[in-house]
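> @MW can you paste both from yesterday?
MW: sure, first one:
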Amino acid sequence: MKKYIHLLIFLCVCQWIVPAPETALTTGSISIKSPGNPAVTYALKADAGGCLAAAQELPLSIRREVSETPSGLRVKVTLTAREKVYYNYEEAYPLPAVRHEACQFYMPGFWYRRNLRSPREAPSFHTSDSWQVREDRLSAPLTGIYNEENGDYYTVLRLEQSRDEALTTHSSGEVILSGKTSLGFTGFRNIAGEAALVFGFPYREAPRTYIRKLTLIPPVQAFEKLEKGESRELLWEIRKGNAPDYSAFVAGTWAYTFDTFRPGEVETPYSADAAKEVLSRFFTGSYVDRYELKYFSGVHLRTDDCESTGSAEVGFVGRVLLNAFNALEYGEETNRPGLAEKARNIFDSYLAHGFTPEGFFREFVNYERGEEEAIFSIRRQSEGAFAILLYLDYERKKGRKHPGWETRIKTLLANLGRLQDAGGSFPRKFNGRFAVSDPSGGSTPSATLPLTMAYRYFGDTSYLESARRTAVYLEKELIARADYFSSTLDANCEDKEASLYASTAMYYLSMATPAGKEREHYTDLCKQAAYFCLSWYYLWDVPFARGQMLGDAGFLSRGWGNVSVENNHVDVFIFEFATVLDWLARERGEPRFSAFSSVIKTSMLQLMPVEGHLFNIAKAGYYPEVVQHTAWDYGRNGKGFYNDIFAPGWTVASLWQMLSPGRVSAFFKQNQSSF
């Protein structure tokens, strides 16, 4: 407990003000390319007047000015062409006496510690101990280095206001940009055993560039053209500070970056009611009733036709049961009996046909191929139980009882209880005979939600005890270690959803726990995990080139979250997290949380597909999923577009949960007086 008190003191008292770096010494270079010829790189040295020069005359002048700021040092570089030139500028900032092997690294929304949870086919220390990447991969154009030996950290943040981008014809090698860009690069490097920050302009990625899931290719270096007499001004801020651990470093860096960029809400014409009306069209358009399981078709759809498929999925990307509850509640609220009937048909079909003989959910059934998943996951099973508990609570409030469903959920939770180990974790994957195929505990927090809900619904303290054991595991293995991993099912690496679920799990435990030390402890853990989750969400608007649909449509990336190290796109995975941020803002007096929650809640409605504004989606209400915002694609189309296959089941469910902020408090308050 003392550790978290110290962390809170650090966050609140220090107010994120840190001393400036002792020096602004850097090593610089400029690469000059002549079309059709390999580039030539020149080392730069500063003269007494602040100009950078090479050993021979260059076709451009470089002036470098350094000034102090409350946060550190501001570095301004001005390049002016003496003649037409194609250039790429780079600086390295060696950290004085900081051993590279003693450091952990941070590039928000992309790189955590050493990315050792990620395979060597994705950016990680498995491939190299030095990486630099284009800025639009990151939720903020920043790199941080944390020295575990003494707690010192250094960050470099690019300060850029324009939103220019240019197309290129190649993904690797030396490429000349087709126009102006505002994208530079940032990263870290091992220089003779010492750590260094690396940054420059335009973008350059090394030692490899990441273009597709688990696909690294040779590095890329971009060159921008300056005409004779034309200038380009570049601006970075270098900051030094000290933090008691990596978690405090990430938290402080997020707050500093938020204060620097001050992202504002995005203008949207949609109120919660208006947004739900549009999203409800997914329910009416995707309903499938030709099989024993009835469902909303929400996975493996094509964006160009949105035709329903034969795949029914309980949780993860399909979210059939949560969407059924959403449709039922909305159908009754808006007097749409046909919609409510579809939802009840889904629940009835899953009660009759949706379980294995052992009592697990049939997680994923593909009727077209006659295939069914034989390996189960704690995440899908938990998400199914979560949805059914919402449904049962709603029905009980309406005076309607479902003893068959209650029995099913009790059996399922008993099955999950058999899988929980002594340390409190649940295995990531297993089969119907309880044989574990993936013991990793990164998905454990997904189980915390239905366990706390079952405690409130059934009044059985054994469920709460199980949830408390998950909290012990989460605190020890994820939160205290700052190691959030393997929550998503289509990647096994550092990911946003692990920190989101960890923070949300502590929120649910706080809701289920009376006021006192235990509840306060859960709240503190919720806040600590929330900073890591926030670090995945964009604080700035990445640029798009003309011809890239998202840019032409005016898409703003602020408030959208990157997915994982493996899956480098943004999406609307939010569910209760915006509500968690609003709650934490009140509980812990952190206005940044509620301010950014407002950004999320407005920004995530930008791509609402309606007639006349479909954003390359074939049907209204089918909200897009794989939003490709950087030089990476899931298989098709690339930056500025979507992948051709998507899963609107979970996007609709996520936004619907965001648009229903009172659900959690109402669920626990309703049952609070009974136990």
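MW: second:
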Amino acid sequence: MAKSEQSNSPLSFAASLITQGKYRFYQLAMPSEVLTKTCFVISRDEDPEEGFQRLLNKQRAQEIADFIDAGMATIPTSVVLSAQSAADFQYNSRLKTISFKDTPKSFLILDGQHRVYAFKLAKTDIRVPVVIYNGLSRTDESRLFIDINTKQKPVPNELLLDIRKLAEYQNDVETRLGQIFDLFDTQIDSPLLGKMTPAKKRAGDISRVTFNAAVKPLLVLFGEADTSAIYQVLSSYLIAMLSESKKRKIEIKIGNPVVFRSLMMVFPDVAQRVRDRFGKKYEPEKFAEVVREMLLRVKVSSTKTVGNSATAYSKIFTDALKSKSILD
């Protein structure tokens, strides 16, 4: 639908009046072009006295707009608005319709500012579920904004990654990472067996989010190798690291996200040493020879505190790998 010019005539839509506790609101479907013309948002940065909305993330809005223009968008979540005096908002109980003026500041957005901005960016017009409150004070609007944005719990990233396979939304990289994760999660010889958590965060276990962040930078090293081959090489490396560190009495808490990311950051240097010495024989015992020498140069005391920096923790091992002195 082509986006129309703004009109001075009141707009009218069928609506249902709903009462929840002390609040009454109207539920309806509205063309997205109407929302873009009649809604506004107050940012705390723009109006510190009355504003309470966060600044727009334009990249996020553009992603929603692109999704709409792709032609298969469905956005069933209601945009929540508060009618302002400029709207001259009216409800006809007999006809069950609402009407308001087609003016730029008819409605303050309480929830859905990125969607409304995306509608403005999109070339396509769609009908959108809308909830409208009328007669709210600025205090009421602020409290509703807080309630809406604190009571709604977002879906964990771990679960989203896990179900992307079912939705067939994975790109090539995500597909490869997902397959490698699943091999570590299910193969009987996996050094991480029982330490993976596919769909949610769990203390001491490796989530898909942690795994993807750590392994994704390594994929370029493997070129077009299939995921089972990548699993075998990474598995051999981790088997060697866990086994040799235990002999050296260095505690490796593999389920700690910082530790896991650190070990993946060390992998390229260790793998290069294995290749230089043994060719393309990426087997646990070959990795063990390189790892053993590296860990002999690591001060056990330096590994006691992991900290929050994977880069800093990994440096303990990479420095030892490059060192020629043995420190006990």
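> thanks! Residues 11-151 form one domain.
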